[in-house]
Amino acid sequence: MGLCTARDKFLGRTSLQNYVDSFVNTGELKYQGVLSLNNTVLRKIWSFFKAKYRRLYSSTGEERTRLRLFRDHLIYVLKSNLKKIRTYRLGLNEFSDLTLAEFRALKTGLKISRSSRRDFIEDDSNDDELQRSSSKLYQRYYHARRLKRNLKTRQYKDRQFFDDGFEQFFNRDNDNNNTDQQSNGFDWRIKNVVGPIRSQGQCGSCYAFAMAAVFESLYAIKTNSQNVIQLSPQQIVDCSSDGNFGCNGGDFLPTVNYLSAKGGKIATEASYPYGVKEDSCRKNDINEIELGQVEYEEIPVGDEQKLAEALTNNGPMYIAFDAMHKDFMYYQSGVLEIDSCRNDPYILSHAMTLVGYGYDEELQKPY
């Protein structure tokens, strides 16, 4: 059995960016129009990074290359954080020795399906105000009666869920759509219907995680459950096709089609755990829950009011965005504002689950 040393504890509780900031605070890193970064400080920070993230390189040449990348990222983050007009902070992290292309390959994975692109083009030609983004999914409140019919009585680990649970949840929250609440913000996490944050690792499976998280929340809402049952992104990665490509990316529509074809059933994370790679599709020895019939609808591109209404009234949503900007690689806190962030469906690259919105009083910024 290994012993935990004081250095291990220090590495564990100290973030890389906090370690970097300690040099800024003591004056060892200076910024007076030009960033002063001497080799001694750089080597200390580099050694901390390698120890914290257990980096081992195949050759001296590779380490030199990674160190140059690390230095460039370090300077970029420091300069960004020293700009007073910024509404957000960046922070170095485990990706700080990667190229931007390597990071994108690891942490994106959205591939807009051909049918979604066709829908966008057709809508765009008919009405510019009614463009569809294939990245917006939600379950309509006015389909509650249909969802109740499909729910009937479900049994999961000896617990019964009844028709009136779904209705009681929405009756309890009927004032969700009032204007004051929408302007002040809304967060599904405080209703205990959002699962934990998970990492896709080195696999382009963001679409699978986003879809699994949406269905987790909608199922918790539908069954009025106090516990979120984690669902399996790995099943989506391994078993869905026709527009999904395992660890090489996918989209929400092929995933919905896959789940619909198998009767609205999806495996639990506990019975079909994530493996950070594509594997053969498992059909035996898994525990699946019945989602029922899932209705989805798309929000017009750029209509944040409709987005807020849909989120508040219906539940967490599948969204996609252009994650190609470097600041996504290092975002740490605050309200991220990127002027060049585009919403053309051809360049959307990352899928996430939207669970709320709010207003930062200190920054005077909505988010």
What does this structure look like?
By secondary structure, the protein is α+β, with helices and mostly antiparallel strands. The chain has helices at 6-13, 16-25, 39-52, 60-81, 100-107, 114-126, 144-151, 163-172, 179-184, 206-222, 233-239, 252-261, 304-314, 327-330; strands at 30-31, 35-36, 88-90, 154-156, 159-161, 186-187, 265-267, 288-290, 317-321, 331-334, 350-354, 356-357, 359-360, 365-366. The strands form 7 sheets. Strands 1-2 form a two-stranded antiparallel ribbon. It has a two-stranded antiparallel ribbon with strand order 3-10.
CATH homolog superfamily of the largest domain: Cysteine proteinases
State the order of secondary-structure elements, H for helix, E for strand.
HHEEHHEHHHEEHHEHHHEEHEHEEEEE
> What level of helicity do the residues show?
40-55%
Judging from the principal axes of the Cα atoms, what is the shape? globular
Give a brief description.
With 367 residues, the protein is an alpha+beta fold. The chain has 14 helices and 14 strands.
